[in-house]
Amino acid sequence: MESKMRGADILARTLERAGLRTIFALSGNHIMALFDAAFGTGLKLVHVRHEAAAVHMADAWARLTGQCGIALVTGGPGHANAVGALLTALAAESPIVLLSGHAATNELGRGAFQELRQADMALPATKAAWTAHSACQLGRDLARAVRIAQSGRPGPVHLSLPVDLLEQRLEDTPALWPQAAEFVPASQPLADRAADATLAALADAKRPLILAGPSLCTTSGRALLRGLAAATGVPTIGMESPRGINDPSLGAFAEVLCLADLIVLLGKPHDFTLRFADPPFVDRACRFIALDPDAALIERISKEKGPRLMASAIADAAAATERLIARTAGGPKYPGPWGREVAEAIAYRPSSWPQLAAAAAEKVHPLQLCHAIASQLAEDRNAILVCDGGEVGQWPQAVPTPARRIINGVAGSIGAAIPFAIAARLAEPAAPVIAVLGDGTFGWHMAEFDTAVRYGLPFVAVVGNDATWNAEYQIQLREYGVERAHGCELLPARYDLVATALGGHGELVTAARELGTALQRAVKSARPACLNVMTQRVAAPVLRRNA
Ligand SMILES: Cc1ncc(C[n+]2csc(CCOP(=O)(O)OP(=O)(O)O)c2C)c(N)n1
Ligand SMILES: [Mg+2]
């Protein structure tokens, strides 16, 4: 009997053979066979304090390493806790697989422990979701899940694992093990004809823009976009923020978007982030070209824009970018007046900002926070910046830093910062990691300080503490008036003491002048750290030169 494999062993060894060795996990009855099967493999389980954190960590891991991220949680409520976090990965186009334990197949419909239609629940938050139905297929199921996650528009996939299949013993035969090719993503290159037609249309246009989606906003994706801009001379902009055209990273971009006469959507969904590319945000005569891995998204643009969609092609975003660069004739083009106009708009920051950053006030202005962080990040070119909700998290996106960056992304879901920071440090053990998040946002995953301490993964969480859910409070001020603002107050709580209680480093910062040295101490502590900064309750920047 003992020489036989368990279903769990097939899965664990398939993960190992595929090089997917870091597993973000939270234990539970249904998956203990998998924990056991990890012995004797090269798998590293990073066990966390909330299932959503495991998913966020897998997401950040995928964004930074380019690998498929793997999260492992238990069935029923564990799975349910994980599902919400899938939305962040889905909108960020981040390839991950959520493996969830599941009630035994022979108990389904009989009132099994934690019985739940898990795949149905995960489906709207994933590219695909299913329940394994035979132990001998588990390795193949995993390969298929990884392949789907990384094919076309990358994103999350869910696989439910009935506990009886994980525990079932079966003879080891070659048929159990997926071929390496089964993991390989399907590739959709851009046809030369479509590339040439796109380049010709760009050359004919007076004010063209190339807009790229989240999958090209990783470090390697952005390098590709820079290559495309250099090759074509066309302004090429990555968009990954739920604030869309008001993303503070893009400065006064909205002021040039409305002037464009041709927009190439390069794996960039036509959606709310572009205000549906309707006037006045986009000119009513502007034409479009869609290069996208999903036929359904191209169909959507076609419905919205009719004959103004002058061409389209199904292609993976990175592959399409590479093909466009390869098909560009001649040497690099230079931006010209339109390129300079776009670059200036994107680089715009208000001239009042240096004064705001220098002013002495009772509480710290978010810009002061950003300047201190920028100079800390500048000390190490490997540094990684994480930005999360709400208003305060927008500011560091407006202050240029040399850092690599992960933001919570188009899903507009707050709370991922601490898991993101921990996974970033795990992926890049030498990189200083600084996360900026609001006091409300800190509450989601503060217990993960325990995870970071257990695994020795230092990072600095800089909490902009305005004792408010300020992003929503600002909506109340704008829409309903100050006398009708309620339900958004928090306490100026000692989040720094949460970090110290869990074995990390914590400091309360009440004045801007203390920030720089506090940051240095936090980095030097080499422990997971929380700087709890008492900040002013100000609205996030929306940048317009003509405002
Ligand atoms: C999961 C989730 N829940 C709620 C919201 C709505 N929301 C967006 S920003 C925000 C306030 C965040 O407050 P805080 O973290 O303190 O940052 P601040 O805006 O105060 O700077 C809320 C509640 C959201 N985007 N995502
Ligand atoms: Mg706040």
What do these coordinates show?
- It is a single chain.
- With about 550 residues, the chain is α/β, with parallel strands linked by helices.
- Helix content is about 40%, strand content about 15%.
- The chain contains 22 helices and 19 strands.
- It has a 6-stranded parallel β-sheet with strand order 3-2-4-5-7-6. A 6-stranded parallel β-sheet has the order 15-14-16-17-19-18, sandwiched between helices.
- Strand 18, helix 22 and strand 19 (about 530-535) form a beta-alpha-beta unit.
- Helix 3 (about 50-65) runs parallel beside helix 4 (about 75-90) and helix 15 (about 365-375) packs across helix 22.
- About 55% of the residues are buried.
- The mean pLDDT is about 95.
- The structure holds thiamine diphosphate and magnesium ion (MG).
- Magnesium ion binds near residues 440 and 468.
- Oligomeric state of this protein: single chain
Query: What proportion strand?
Result: 15-25%
Tell me the distance between the termini: 75 Å
Mean pLDDT: 96
Instruction: Please tell me how large the radius of gyration is.
Output: 24 Å
Q: Tally the beta strands.
A: 19
Principal-axes geometry comes out as: globular
Physical arrangement of strands within the biggest beta sheet: 3-2-4-5-7-6
Bound molecules: thiamine diphosphate, magnesium ion
Helix content: 25-40%
Number of helical stretches of at least 4 residues: 22
